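[job 4471] stage=fold_predict status=RUNNING
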Amino acid sequence: MSRINDLIKEMCPNGVRYNKLSEIGNQFSGLSGKSKNDFENGNCKYITYTNIYNNPSTNLDIEDYVQVKENEKQNEIKYKDILVAGSSENLEDSGMISVVTKEPSEKIYLNSFCFGFRLNDNFYDKYNPDFLKHIFRDKNFRNEIISCSFGVTRYNLSKEKFLKIKIPCPPLEVQEEIVKILDKFGELEAELEAELEAELEARKSQYEFWRGKLFDFDENVKELSLEELCNVVDYRGKTPKKVESGIFLVTAKNIKMGYIDYEYSKEYIAESDFNEVMRRGKANIGDVLFTTEAPCGHVAQVDKPNIALAQRVIKYSSKDLSQLSNKYLKYALLSNQFQNKLLGTSTGATVKGIKGSKLHKMTIPVPTIEKQNQIVNILERFDKLINDITTGLPAEIELRRKQYEYYRNKLLSFEELSVSE
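[job 4471] inference complete, writing structure tokens
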């Protein structure tokens, strides 16, 4: 860091010039006029949306092919090209960018759902491509990209607004020093993240093992149906009217394998509609939720008051807590044994589903309440380690990413040179 500070003081003490993208280069389109057959019988490589999304430096070692005739007019990608995924289902992923940091050894083209940006000759040697790969993934730049996107169910990047975005142009020596630091930091971050992810996978495997082992009871443990053990509420009927804010509506999309994800999908109903929507029965903390379709068989436990539940969600709660713990019920429904039975009972070719009438008759083992509590204690420890966002392994992985993002943002934030200078 001190080396960079010294260089900045020496080479650009008053700041660096920021250039609009429209001033330093031009856009070019991806493949055009291609049919499905062209991608099934290809003779040339092409860059996909996924390649751009996953790689700040474009991966040229690819196996995606498209048919391009010898005299066909298509834009080839070149060294230092900036490749943009111009459309996405999620706003935060809109306009993801990858930079070609190596000279292609053969003809490579760009997917039609993407577009490219090529530096003009007078700016070509003013930017290090590895510096650009960091600039375009920096949080500040990503926020600007997102602000240039529009759409409802799918988000598209406005090319006109994109060209108005400005990027810094520090001296090449400063760019190269920043690249050294960020590349090294990125390598260390990737190594640490790989170790943590390997540890997380090992814990998940252990969890899966014990979740199967702990529910492998002998024949002395009785099995009872869900309708015998639980109070049941099946949330059916018309789709409630959605509003911008109000009571959070938990849909099947929010219910994951073991928890409610309040970030994945955010839908709300009006407070005035709450009693009507939940007329079959309100959700209490500890109640167990089960999805019957899209997806089928996801399970979570209610952990917040005053939430509304949507269609394709069934709520179970123990009739007798001295016989069945709600926490045990959650894990029993998540167990390999129950999920395998569910798979054999559910119907549908592409989208699996199960009717409530069939689901309620499915059985779970019911050991003593003491045994249930032992099982819950073991599995909750695994849950905390795997899923807890504040103390578990995922939090440590996220911390590593945030550290890298912090230093990238710090190194790429330059004071802008006054126009008069």
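[job 4471] summary: The first helix runs from residue 2 to 11.
[job 4471] exit 0
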